[in-house]
Amino acid sequence: MHQAAIPEHRVRKFHKLLQESVVDLDALRELSWSGVPLVLRPQVWRLLCGYLPPAKSRQSQTLERRRREYADMVPEYYDIPHEERSEDEVAAYRQVLVDVPRTAPNVPFFHEPIIQESLQRLLYIWGIRHPASGYVQGMNDLVTPFLAVFLSEHLPGPMESWSAEALNQTIMLAVEADCYWCLCKLVEGIQDHYTYAQPGIQRAVFRIKELVRRCQSDVSEHLETEAVDFIQFALRWVNCLLVRELPFCLAIRLWDTYLAEGTGFSEFLIYLSAAFLLSWKDRLTQLEFQDLILFLQRLPTAEWTEAQLERVLSEAFILRSSYSDAQSHLRLG
């Protein structure tokens, strides 16, 4: 995987934190917000997700136990005759089978058979184990950054050079387990995004709209004049946490910040989505309805670098600092 250079003094800070007998998670979150060094990402993400305990003496034992727990779920939930599944389980299984081939279309490695099978297993098991929402379209996108990062421990170098021949079922089960437990933690803070009628997403889109109206009324008014509803583009942004709007390498960098935000990352997503939209404000106000819709649904981010994403993250941070109090009355639960 590729990554912009991280200053050496920051890398040293990461190493120092990770070498402590008990990792200071608050300090690790603060440091990780601006990006995690490539080789340290797997360990840092496991810590930020609460998958690994901060006490170093307990980490290897915990990792072994959690991976074993996941491995035990595979025969219990996945490797069973189809006729033993309930009607709802069959429907969930079919939905996962439909969605997995659509995952990260611009990342060929994810379409290797061993990776597709792995995605099918972990997404299906996640859905069965979380009946309040079950598997929902878009969750396949949420797991891809975890999958790439945990695979990077076994496949060095850029993703373009990875070979599936270097993988086996033992490696994949360990990677799957790590992805499963980290996905559990990520979705914990946005569970109502995926329950019936997706109330969390509806609220988030409303708050993005209100925030844009407050801080950039000309953009808001232009979209309203052109009859463009925020739900027409922002629903996908919130549902997939902006993964589909960015080159995949930037989605991984974005996860550094999400995980550093902790359970409050869904709040930050409001400000990030508004900052993302407003990064195109000059262009948006020049377009009419049809061109607006096309533009917003296919934003020209293919050539973006980390520097452009960092600018949007910085703008989001500023928006939150400026408007978090004004937005408080919009939190409907």
Automatic annotation (TrEMBL):
Q: Which UniProt keywords apply?
A: GTPase activation
Where is the Rab-GAP TBC domain positioned along the sequence?
35-262
Gene3D superfamilies xref list: putative rabgap domain of human tbc1 domain family member 14 like domains (1.10.8.270), Ypt/Rab-GAP domain of gyp1p, domain 1 (1.10.10.750), Ypt/Rab-GAP domain of gyp1p, domain 3 (1.10.472.80)
The protein's GO terms of the molecular function aspect are: 14-3-3 protein binding; GTPase activator activity
**Domain of life, per lineage:** Eukaryota
SUPFAM superfamilies tied to this protein: Ypt/Rab-GAP domain of gyp1p (SSF47923)
Put simply, this protein is called: Rab-GAP TBC domain-containing protein
Organism equals: Volvox carteri f. nagariensis
Q: What is the lineage of its organism?
A: Eukaryota, Viridiplantae, Chlorophyta, core chlorophytes, Chlorophyceae
